[in-house]
Specification:
The chain is α+β, with helices and mostly antiparallel strands. Helices cover 53% and strands 15% of the residues.
C-alpha cells in the first residue's frame, strides 16, 4: 500500500509553504466580477463552430473549478466559486503551488506514484477546503490521505496501430500483447455486468471505440500509481519500447518504407478531403488516400525470437537496468534517435536521423573530421576484411555527401541505391553497438578500441 513518508522537518516546511498560498489567495464578490466584465468585455466574435453537444446544469457533477494554462498546457492559475464569491490563486501565487509540487516530487516514492498534475490538484484542493473552513487538517496530513486514496494497482494498455504479433513478449517495462476478440468480449461482459441498465450504450461504445483495436497489439504496463501517473508512464514507456522495436523491422532497412506501427491516436495516413461544386451548387465530396494505405506489420513468433537473438534481448536488459554504464546509456539514446528513421517519410530525413544516431556514439567531438572518422570506425566496427572495409568507407562517405546536399541545398536523393546500401550498413552498426555494451563500459573505450584496430 502506498504510504509516503515525509520527514517531520520537511513536513513543517511544506505546511508553511502551503499556508502562504492560502494567505495569498484572493477573494472577489461574484456581483463585482459580473459588473466589471459587462463594462470591459471587448472579446472578439467567436467563430461559427458546429455545436455537437450542450452541457446543462444537470450534467455538472461536483464543484466547478477553472484556471488558465500556458501555451504548453501547463496550468498557471486556479479559481473556484461559492454562491457569492470567487477565490483565485493568481499566476504569481500559482508559482508557489508549482514550487511546492516540485519539492514533493523530490521524494522517489512520491515521484513514481503521483504525477505533477495530481500533486498540484491535491495542493489546490487543500487550499480550497482550508481557505473556506471545510477542513482543519494541515497540508501534509491532507496530502497523505488524498494520495493514498488515489494510488492503487493499475494495468494500463496503449494499443498500437498496424502491429500484429503471434505471441506476447516483454521489452523494458512494457509487455506487448495481442488484443484478441475473446479478451474484448470479456471486457464488454464485465462492463455490462456492472451496469446492466446501460447494456445498449455499452455495446455501442465497444463497437465504435474498442472493437477497432481487435487483432492488433497493445503495450501493457502494471504499476501502483494514480491514474494520471499511470497514463503518463504507459505513454512514455510504450513510446520508447516501440521505437526500439521498430529498429528490428524492415523500416530500418528500406529508404522508401515507413513503419505504420505507432501508438493508437498518433501518426496518420495522408488523405485528400475535397468539396466539389458545379454551377455554384455542391455536387460531391471526394476523399482518397494519398499513396498506398498502411499495411499491418506482422511479427511471427520466429521473427520475435530472431529479434531477441540478434540484439533485442540485450536492449531489454539495458532498459531494465537501474545502473547503466556510460556506453549502455549512450547506445540507448543513439538507438532512440536512429529509430526515428523508421517513421520518417522522406528518405533524406531518414538519412539525417541515422547519421545523427551513429555520430552520437562514434565521434569523439565535433572538431573531428566527421565523414572520415565515422566511416572508418563503422568499417572497423562491422567488417573484418580490407575490401569490405573499403566498400563501407566509400558508401558512408557517399551517404554523407547526400546528407550535405540535403541540409545545405535542400536536394533530395535522386537515386535510393546508395541510401539503401548505407541503411544496411547502419543497421548492422546498430546491432554491433548493442553487442559492444556487453564488454565495454564507456563510449571512450569503444572509440579507443576501434581506433586501435585502424592502427593495427
Amino acid at each position: 500500500m502506498f504510504r509516503p513518508e515525509i520527514h517531520p522537518d520537511a513536513a513543517l516546511n511544506l505546511n508553511r509553504r502551503a499556508l502562504s498560498i492560502c494567505k495569498d489567495t484572493s477573494v472577489t464578490p461574484v456581483s463585482e466580477i459580473r459588473s466589471t466584465k459587462e463594462a470591459t468585455d471587448t472579446s472578439p466574435r467567436s467563430p461559427d463552430f458546429h455545436v455537437s453537444a450542450v452541457i446543462t446544469e444537470a450534467d455538472i457533477i461536483g464543484e466547478i473549478t477553472t484556471g488558465l494554462s500556458d501555451s504548453e498546457g501547463n496550468k498557471v492559475t486556479h479559481e473556484w466559486y461559492d454562491e457569492s464569491q470567487r477565490y483565485s490563486i493568481s499566476e504569481e501565487n500559482y508559482r508557489s503551488v508549482i514550487t511546492l509540487a516540485t519539492q514533493l516530487l523530490k521524494s522517489k516514492e512520491i515521484r513514481v506514484s503521483l504525477s505533477r498534475k495530481a500533486i498540484e490538484e491535491i495542493i489546490c484542493d487543500w487550499v480550497r477546503q482550508y481557505s473556506t473552513g471545510l477542513i482543519t487538517h494541515n497540508f501534509v496530513e491532507f496530502f497523505t490521505l488524498e494520495a493514498r486514496k488515489r494510488v492503487r494497482l493499475l494495468q494500463v494498455f496503449a494499443p498500437i496501430r498496424s502491429l500484429c504479433i503471434e505471441k506476447a513478449f516483454t521489452l523494458g517495462l512494457v509487455r506487448f500483447e495481442p488484443i484478441e476478440g475473446q479478451r474484448i468480449d470479456a471486457w464488454e461482459k464485465q462492463a455490462i455486468s456492472r451496469a446492466p441498465d446501460r447494456e445498449c450504450a455499452i455495446k455501442e461504445f465497444y463497437e465504435r471505440r474498442i472493437r477497432p483495436i481487435q487483432g492488433y497489439t497493445a503495450a501493457m504496463l502494471e504499476a501502483e500509481t494514480e491514474e494520471q501517473r499511470a497514463h503518463d508512464l504507459i505513454l512514455e514507456e510504450a513510446q520508447r519500447s516501440l521505437s526500439l522495436l521498430r529498429v528490428f523491422t524492415q523500416s530500418s532497412l528500406l529508404p522508401n518504407m515507413t513503419s505504420p506501427c505507432v501508438l493508437w491516436g498518433t501518426g496518420h495516413s495522408d488523405s485528400s478531403f475535397i468539396l466539389r461544386f458545379e454551377g455554384g451548387e455542391f455536387s460531391g465530396l471526394h476523399e482518397a488516400l494519398l499513396g498506398p494505405g498502411d499495411q499491418p506489420t506482422v511479427l511471427s513468433s520466429t521473427a520475435i525470437d530472431d529479434a531477441y537473438r540478434i540484439g533485442l534481448e540485450r536492449v531489454h536488459e539495458i532498459l531494465l537496468s537501474e545502473n547503466r554504464s556510460d556506453l549502455e546509456q549512450v547506445v540507448l539514446e543513439a538507438l532512440l534517435l536512429y529509430s526515428r528513421c523508421t517513421i520518417a517519410k522522406d528518405p533524406a530525413d531518414k538519412l539525417v536521423y541515422i547519421l545523427v544516431g551513429l555520430e552520437s556514439v562514434l565521434l569523439k567531438d565535433p572538431n573531428e573530421s566527421i565523414a572520415q572518422n565515422l566511416s572508418e570506425r563503422i568499417a572497423f566496427l562491422i567488417a573484418r576484411d580490407l575490401p569490405k572495409r573499403k566498400e563501407i568507407v566509400q558508401t558512408t562517405r557517399d551517404a554523407y555527401r547526400i546528407r550535405s546536399d540535403f541540409i545545405h541545398h535542400g536536394a533530395s536523393p535522386e537515386s535510393l541505391d546508395t541510401l539503401r546500401e548505407f541503411m544496411e550498413i547502419a543497421w548492422y552498426s546498430a546491432l554491433a553497438l548493442i553487442g559492444a555494451t556487453r564488454t565495454l563500459k564507456s563510449r571512450g573505450a569503444l572509440i579507443a578500441e576501434l581506433d586501435d584496430r585502424r592502427l593495427s
